[in-house]
Amino acid sequence: MVDNGRPSRGTDAGHAAVELRGVVKEFPLSRRREPLRALDGVDLTIAHGEFVALLGPSGCGKSTVLRMIAGLEAPTAGSVEVAGGAPAALIERHRLGVAFQDAALLPWATAWDNVALPFRLAGRPVPEERVRALLETVGLEGFARARPKQLSGGMRQRISIARAMALEPDVLLLDEPFGALDAVTRRRLNLELGAVWARLRTTTVLVTHDVAEAVQLADRVVVMTGRPGALAHVEPVSAPRPRGEDFTRGHAFHEVVDRLVALLDDPSDGRR
Ligand SMILES: Nc1ncnc2c1ncn2[C@@H]1O[C@H](COP(=O)(O)OP(=O)(O)OP(=O)(O)O)[C@@H](O)[C@H]1O
């Protein structure tokens, strides 16, 4: 395990945006077997307005970390706090935005209605101008009336991200949002998400298998060990934003990507 260091930016009202302390997660298996230990003592503090990417081998517990921040799983030991309280409190106030790999759009609803959904779920009037602006932010202003099956995978993911941002969440959770896309579309969407994020600076936690995506988007890249997952290494990425192709073509970018790829091949190298 490593000390993940102090977050680079200030905290709101004295607490971090997200704080995991000594988090252990076990899943029960059959009655006669030992439970499966997915996470083993994860400490992670994320500052307000910070973008953190989680990398690690398959099954190391990245999605479990995200699901705990989203209040969908409880830790077996340790604590998970979001904005100084239980994740459930943030969900109740509709302050958490979530976008997962499969986009999970309502298939019968238009792009517009999918983006408007969080307002309806929160029992609020739908601000038409804001929904229009969200569709424009993700480059889909011309597709408001289209239904998901009429759109490409990349377009569906962009709607999913617009929907996650609809209520201006305090914390945005992205689980492999571009995982199912081809490499070219994925690179383009990374550039777009990076540009949008540079304007909004929403506290974001991204789970990804793509090292280049993590380095391009994050303020800190957290590398986890294989199961049971723990933090193996934390890489700060201080390049200015927005990070365009100048950054991803540069030497510094490739140097960090190569180092993290080597670490993922042998995470014991990264333990500090
Ligand atoms: N609800 C569950 N019940 C039992 N085991 C689970 C459950 N959720 C996750 N696990 C196990 O916990 C471990 C971590 O799973 P998790 O999905 O968090 O890993 P991951 O790093 O996100 O994997 P991947 O990169 O392959 O998506 C895995 O061994 C998985 O099988």
UniProtKB/TrEMBL annotation:
The keyword Transport applies. Residues 18-251 form the ABC transporter domain. GO terms for molecular function: ATP binding; ATP hydrolysis activity. The keyword ATP-binding applies. Keywords: ATP-binding, Nucleotide-binding, Transport. It comes from the Bacteria. Gene3D superfamilies: P-loop containing nucleotide triphosphate hydrolases. PANTHER family: ABC TRANSPORTER ATP-BINDING PROTEIN, TAURINE IMPORT ATP-BINDING PROTEIN-RELATED. This is ATP-binding cassette domain-containing protein. It comes from Actinomadura litoris.
